[in-house]
Every structure is written in C-alpha cells, then in structure tokens.
Amino acid sequence: MGTLRKVSLTNQIMAAMVLGILAGAIFQQNIIGIKVVGDLFLRLIQMSVVILIMGSVIEAVGGLEIQELRKIGFKMFVWFMGSTIVAAVIGVIFGLIVKPGVGLKGTIGTVDSLTVNDGSLQEIILDFIPQNIIAAMAEANMIQVIIFALFFGLALSLVKQDVKGRQMLEWVSNFNSVILKMVTLIMQLAPIGIFALIAAVVGEIGVGVLGTLMKFLLTLGTAAVLYLIVWLGITTLYCKVSFSRLLKNIWRITMIAVTTTSSAVSLPVKIEDGREKLGISDRINKLVMPLGMSLNSNGLAMYLSLSIVTFAQFFQIELTLGQLTQAVLLSTLACLGTVVVPGGGLVALATVMPMLGLPTESIALLAGIDWFSGVFRTLLNVDIDVLVALIIANDEGELDRGIFNGEKSYTE
C-alpha cells in the first residue's frame, strides 16, 4: 500500500488507461456495466464545475482594475480567436490533403436526441445572455454562467474600495479555495474512474470500429499533435522557458484531458497545476483558464472543419473556396460556449452541418469513434488554454519562474 502511494497520480492514470483498454478488449460486452463507476467519478467532478467557473471568473475580474481588464481581455480575445481560426484552417488543409472521406463506406453507430440550434443569428446572440442565472446554472449553460460572472466581477471591481466590497471579494476567494480542495480530494479517485470509463467504451464498441475510420482518426490525430508541438515551440520561445520542463509541467493536465475527454473535468487540474507547477499568478490563472474552457476550443474547431471536409468527400461534393471559408468560420463560431463534456463534439457537429446543407444523419458515421476523436479534441482544447495563460502571464510579468523551474513551491 505504501508503494502505491509513492506512485504519482499521473502515472496511476496512465496505468489505468492501459489496463482499461486491455480489460475492455478481453471482456468486451461483459464489462460494460462498470461504466457506472466512471460516470460516478465524472459526476463528482462535474457537480462543482459550474460554481468553480463562476467563482474563478468573479474573483479574477473582481480583483482587476478596469484598465487592466481591458488590456488582458484584448489579449485573451486575440489569442483565443486567432488560435481557434488557425486550428479550423489546419483541419481543412489536412482534410484536403489526406482525403479521409474518399472511399469511406457504411454507416457506423447511431445518433440519438442531438439538439440542433436552428435559430437565427439574433436568437443565437440572445441565447448568450441568461434570463435567469439559476436556470443557467442548473442547465450548466457555461457561456451564460460566464457572462453573468463577468458582469458580477466587473461590478465587484468597482465597489471593492468599500469595506463590504473587499469582504465580498475575500469571501469569493475563500469559497473558491474550498471548492478546489474538494475537487483535489475527488481527483484521488481518478485512476479508478478512468479505468472504468475506458474499459466500458472499448468493451462496448470494440476495436474493430477503428478500422473503418482509422484514416479520419489518423488525420485528426496527426494534425492535432503537430499543431500542439508548434504551440509548445512558440510558447517556449515566447516565454523563454525550457521545452522539456514545459512538457513535464503540463503532463498531468494532458493525461486528465485525454483520459476523460472532458474540458470541464480537466478545469480544476488546469487551475491547480497552472498555479503550482507553471507559476501562473492567480489573477491570470483564474481568469484565462475558465474563459478558455468555453471560448478557446482549438481541438473542437479542428475536428469540425475536418469533419465537414470528410463528409463533403463522402458525398462527393466539391467544396468551393467560399464554402471552405464558411466551414472555417462556422467551426470557429460553433466553439463558443459549447458542451464541454464527453460527446459534446457531436452536438456541435449537429449545429454546423445543416448550415452547410449537409445531412445531419450522416453524423452517425463518426458517432462510433466519438470517444477516440474526443481524445484529440480535448488534448488541444485543454493544453492550448494552458499555453495561452502562460503567454499572457509572461506578458504581464506574472509568471513565477522559480515555481515553473521547480526551484520553489507554491505558497498561499
């Protein structure tokens, strides 16, 4: 037992992932029932995500001066939108070069009860604003929660000169610390939960389904990994840090992302490791990480644009430059406030497909491998959020290189 405690949580998660794949392949349909254990772990994490996002954004915005918020907000917008558009463009380029939709045959899996937003642009914009914040929290509508938190934090930043305002900011900060501690305790169950999730997925769909769509998965995986490597290189040069040290510091975040395929579940780990391993100040950390989760989905944008090109090839449709541009823009906009839990990619795809005149039913082609493609989507979604936060912290002079280099530990 003592030896197990010495094994880091990251290594335990990696072992659980491998054992889960083996168990699923061996026991197949007989192990599907274990999924309830994985779902229980996900729910334990997800039950605090909404208030964690709200609290983090309120604390971060409330602690800023208005001019600081404008400055940091502009930087976030540039990095978020720029990186998402580039990711969507890369998805299109790889799709046109590799042609994963050519020769694709058959229909795999089924898609049930996907919500497609058929509303006008005005309705979509209105849906960003909550009519009732309690209802938005209950529905886990992340973009509405963030909008409310931004306005609440802005109001708090204006009244924090008063004693009651300072007390409120301090209360929010203390509350966030308790929530993070709770999530840290729950994360000790991660190896068990991840083993159950992966074993159930592999047991249910088998490894045979990968053969039919392996070309699509390889295209997505190659594009995602190469894009991430480029981002790691840019961050290393921009922040003047060690490439190997950066990889080491984000490794646990990466493992949580690819094994849970959920940006929401990864958020608490991003915030904790951003502060304690990367040396990002709380001011930047608690603002950029939650906002990035809902507004900076590079992996999803790449997946959507590549899927559009793949479906066009499957139906033997020649896309014009204008249609490809539209695919990039739709893939970028569809990432705003999307579902940040496993399976959210299919929901976003169901939103984009009708806008390009492609049949929604064809999403079933990718449904069977959604978990596997979710690995690459979440990898980019999560890791690039962290890298953007690191870049902004470096810009603002709020990157503690002592913590980043492991020369000192984080202290409250």
From TrEMBL:
Where is it mainly found?
membrane
Name the source's superkingdom: Bacteria
Say yes or no: keyword Transmembrane present: yes
What UniProt keywords apply to this chain's record, in alphabetical order?
A: Cell membrane, Membrane, Transmembrane, Transmembrane helix, Transport
Report the locations given in the UniProt record: Cell membrane
Q: Where are the transmembrane segments?
A: 12-32, 44-64, 76-98, 142-159, 179-202, 214-238, 291-315, 327-351
Q: What is the membrane topology listed in the Swiss-Prot or TrEMBL record? A: Multi-pass membrane protein
Q: Which PANTHER family match?
A: PROTON/GLUTAMATE-ASPARTATE SYMPORTER, PROTON_GLUTAMATE-ASPARTATE SYMPORTER
The protein's name is Dicarboxylate/amino acid:cation symporter
- Species of the source: Candidatus Enterococcus ferrettii
